[in-house]
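During the second half of the funding period, the structural biology subgroup turned its attention to how the target accommodates small molecules. The most pressing case was FE2/S2 (inorganic) cluster, which had performed well in the primary screen but for which no bound structure existed. We therefore specified the complex as follows and requested a full 3D prediction, including the ligand pose.
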Amino acid sequence: MAKWIDVLPANELSAGMTKLLAFEEVELLLINIAGEFFAIENRCSHDDGELNGGEICAAEITCPRHGARFNIKTGTVLSAPAFDNIKTYPVRIVDNRVQVFDQEK
Ligand code: FES
């Protein structure tokens, strides 16, 4: 059954910061953009490179390996060499806790 999973206190990730999290069977990159939280899989759709460490500008992240860009909010691919979207996960804040929705259950 799909469920919300508590991952960390919201005040542990300031605006503009990112955090890697083990989440079920995947590695998530949690991102705070101006106080709003987003979660993407830490895996580029081009060559499975880590997105962690990529430059973040507004709601876009650039893969540090070959420079593909993705929309953090939707996972939409924005530039080559990637052509497929990345996976995103719904995030909510409940009682100052960040929760990520596990869609696989
Ligand atoms: S692995 Fe990300 S652009 Fe190649």
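Two results from this model are relevant to the next phase. The first strand starts at residue 3 and ends at 9. The radius of gyration is 13 Å.
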